[in-house]
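Q: For a teaching session next week I want to show students how multiple molecules come together into a single three-dimensional assembly. I've collected the sequence lines for a complex. Could you give me the predicted structure tokens for the whole thing so I can convert them for display?
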Amino acid sequence: MTQLSQKHLLGIKDITEKDIQLIFDTADTFKEVINRPIKKVPSLRDITIANVFFENSTRTRLSFELAEKRLSADVINFSASSSSVKKGETLLDTVNNILSMKVDMLVMRHASPGAPHFLSRHIDANIVNAGDGTHEHPTQALLDSYSIREKLGDVAGKKVAIIGDILHSRVAISNIFALQKQGAEVMVCGPNTLLPKHIASLGVKVELDVRKALEWCDVANVLRIQLERQQIKYFPSLREYSLYYGINLKLLESLDKEIVIMHPGPINRGVELASDVADSRHAIILDQVQNGVAIRMAVLYLLASQPGA
Amino acid sequence: MQKRLILNPELLSITVNRLCHQLIENHNNFENTVLVGLQPRGTYLLDLIVDHLKDLAGVEVTHGYLDTTFYRDDFRRRDTPVKASETKINFIVENKKVVLIDDVLFTGRSVRAAMDALLAYGRPEKVELLVLIDRRYSRDLPLAANYVGKRVNTMASQKVMVQLDPSKQNKVWLVNEE
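A: Of course. Below is the structure for the complete assembly, covering every listed component.
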């Protein structure tokens, strides 16, 4: 197979296991490209991509922008905080205005779940979802799986625990879909208040004790506590959360095996992850960031290469 | 589908032998020369030549594989996208003599893409092209090969099928598509 089954990358839920493998194989070749003395290929030289961010981001936006530039695409950036959205323009109007300037692809982040899905029904350009509210963040899940594959050789058959604020996490949902499609076992772990009520219906194990989760898993993907999305108190204090759910080196070394620690960033050091873990050999956090560029290059390249796109 | 054998195993090995001697003639002990096979099928010919040069002259030639997918000029213009292969070049070509190696020279577009891709690894002193089969009168670009195994006259509708496989016999056919 040489092309994706979808015109857009809206979520992991919509793509197949074969799509994921194609993206990984393509990312392998791009990973070689970004480690060359000249880190650029001319593939997308006649493509214009708009990065439309209605919500703040540093890592994802930089990573996408770098991926686009490494592919020689023309890039325009848009952030809602400094735009006419503040004057009351609707989402569809804003996007149609951007597209009428002959833009071929959109990379979009929005605070409302389903915003890119809504747009995909109204516009022709390829859309890459860079995070929609608490719904999906497909490229993050792809780079997480890709990093696991790189570190452990394969994703199938591995046990992955997602630990922390599952309730507000699009990374968790996309990761669950991605890992299950590749044949991994998934567990979610966190305080009861931060676990969605029906999460077990997705076929994941649920665990409240972080120690038990770590004893079970090969890989722990530790999520950030998203204080900005929490309108009410879900736990008494950050200190108490860190006491019960924070992962430190002492805890890791008391296990009788070595596990891989991942984090999608930004890390709240001393809350979900102690500094001695984040900087240790267990953590592959910076590998994840590097793989992010290769994965995003692969996604953009494959979407743009579709005939008639 | 009609197939006509244009190189049998014996002839093909004589041809590869001649190409290797021509390379030795021009590049001596390969001190400043690197061989680069074009993915996907040029790499089989490259491996054959590298092995043969070792037997002939006792030299271990620096070589690598180059994938040109991201440099092609038909991106978004093909019916089915091309899948990228692995690039394996762990040297810099700055001031080196480079011999690009491919199985068939047809329109010349892959070679153009390869020259573009090669520049990501430095500025070579000289670039040469070696092909097993040169399809005459079918070039879209002003390109010619320095070393040619066999020149054949073909029609655009025909295909050249090269089988270079250590587990089978090496053969080349000219195929008429119905």
